[in-house]
Fold:
Amino acid sequence: MKSGKLIKAAYFAVAAVQLALVTAVAYLSSLTAKKAGVMHHVYYMKDKYSQCIYSPENLELQSTLIVRIAVLASLIFVWATKRKRDLLLKLQSALTVAIGFFAWYAINSGFFKGLLAYPYFIMAFEIVLAIQLLVLAVTAISERRQTKE
Structure:
């Protein structure tokens, strides 16, 4: 029983970290309108990031990779549904698809491109997606172990 509580606590902690990342970037974006120093720093870093890691070519590659991850997660969801697998696996794969969509939207939407904190939003959503991929992998592995037993 302690193992079940520990797993639930770990899932809750991961969800809290993911939510905190997105909330922190939204707060940073709001600070750019209130604090000149924050605005200057974010503007400077946006320019630096747009010349290297978040150049248009790299953003297109990242967008393509995110779409592939979302398609893979949706295939896992369909497979888990057809095979009547654990509800947690279905939930985690559906969350991965949703987070992948939000990450893709953050990269490609005009709304986020117009914000000074645009690179930070991309970073946050990509980190959240990476964390969710790890959660999905752990869930799939543990579900597979349970079905073998």
Notes: The CA atoms of residues 77 and 91 lie 8 Å apart. The chain has one domain: 2-148. The mean pLDDT is 92.
